[in-house]
Design brief:
Elements (H helix, E strand, L loop, with lengths): L5 E2 L2 E2 H7 L3 H5 L5 E3 L6 H4 L7 H21 L14 E3 L1 H11 L6 E6 L10 H19 L15 H8 L2 E6 L2 H13 L2 E6 L5 H9 L3 E4 L4 H13 L4 E4 L5 H8 L1 H11 L10 E6 L4 H14 L3 E8 L4 H8 L28 H7 L5 E5 L1 H15 L13 H8 L7 E6 L7 H8 L4
Parallel strand pairs: 5-13, 6-7, 6-9, 7-8, 10-11, 10-13, 11-12
Antiparallel strand pairs: 1-2, 3-12, 4-5
Helix pairs in contact: 5-16, 6-8, 6-11, 8-9, 11-13, 12-13, 13-15
Bound molecules: pyridoxal-5'-phosphate.
The site of pyridoxal-5'-phosphate (PLP) has 20 residues, from helix 8 and helix 13.
Amino acid sequence: MPVIASVYGQSLTEWQQRFPLLTPILAGEDVSWFNPNIVPVAEAMQDIALTAEDVRQAAARLQRFAPYLAEVFPEVAASGGIIESELVAVPNFAEQLRQRYDVSSEVRLLLKKDSHLPISGSVKARGGIYEVLFHAEQLAIKQGLLTQADDYRRLAQADCRKLFSEHQIAVGSTGNLGMSIGIAAAGLGFNTTVHMSSDARQWKKDKLRAHGVTVIEYAGDYGEAVAEGRRQAEADPRCHFVDDENSTTLFLGYAVAGERIKAQFQQQNVRVDAEHPLYVYLPCGVGGGPGGIAFGLKLAFGDHVHCYFAEPVASPCMLMGMYTGLHEDLAVQDFGLSNKTAADGLAVGRPSGFVGRAMQRMIEGIYTVNDSELFALLRMLDSSEQLQLEPSALAGAPGFARVIQGQACLPGATHLIWATGGGMVPAAEMAQYLNPQR
Ligand SMILES: *Cc1c(COP(=O)(O)O)cnc(C)c1O
């Protein structure tokens, strides 16, 4: 690690004295932070300008689009155009995790397979596709081609597709957001550009190009790809730039997950109440995905749900931003961390300030995981449950052990690993992930 004299006008030693957890964080150790500012959900909701009604409207919009999606994207025809993932039990994985982390008590562990969401194979199919649909709807209504009462299959007709082809959608991405926005926007007929950082996987670029998306590659990291993409989009009034760091639209698309999973718990007879609290572990990059989902979960379950974010040791941007109160004014690189991790979706050095402030009294904590642990967990899930994920998506797996060992956790609890990606990883790439040589 390079020797750093001062950061934002204070010496590193001063930072570490004020915020003791920075010492292990900056040493690259994995840490668990339990948020001292957590308050009851009714109070925490005051930090965020969005409401239950906003989420309800997002859900209604997705419902309006469902017949159209079922027609245009064959992979959601069977679900009637609803993009949703399974909630599954993983008993063998749970047993191995208990041994690995030395947890003696029984745990009820479930896994949410957003890794296998249709259309784009990651959690980004929630927020990303929702924002594309939102934008398409606004454009078509403004042009007099659509009303909210119409059958949205109308949008697949030539006049609507022509309208979309005259407009551009652009996004900056480490991979999965680009996949989600790119495949959805190109599918609707938009002229689509994805600005990709150097760490994005080649197969994701190839796949996007095969869908007719323009992929522009950058030597720098995610922050640079976003900045340049935003700059180019600002020059063009017909271009909509999906702003991962500040978009409330994206956030609301994620939040719909709360009501959806509540229905799944009911179907599976899993109780969530004061005696049966729910603990949820969400991998975090810039924050919109886990933030939006946590918001939706809090609306659905109130104080009976406890949400934790998980980040790589090299990119703990949300943890450092919330812990120091610096939020988006902080980049982990300024403190000497590398922001280099195999967990591509999570390789983000600067957190969303919007999400950090919205969540600062709502989430129970944030912990970090190192890359070799992510790979070990990836192989363990594969061998115990025959389920394959990408490295980022395993960050939620150690969560229950951190919580049980870090603070009191009620015995009737359900723990939920939010598995965020991996469903579209090509076989050859997956074989490398599973290779124990790593
Ligand atoms: C994007 C992503 C996340 C986190 O979402 P953010 O909105 O960036 O915080 C988690 N896991 C995977 C696989 C992702 O692609």
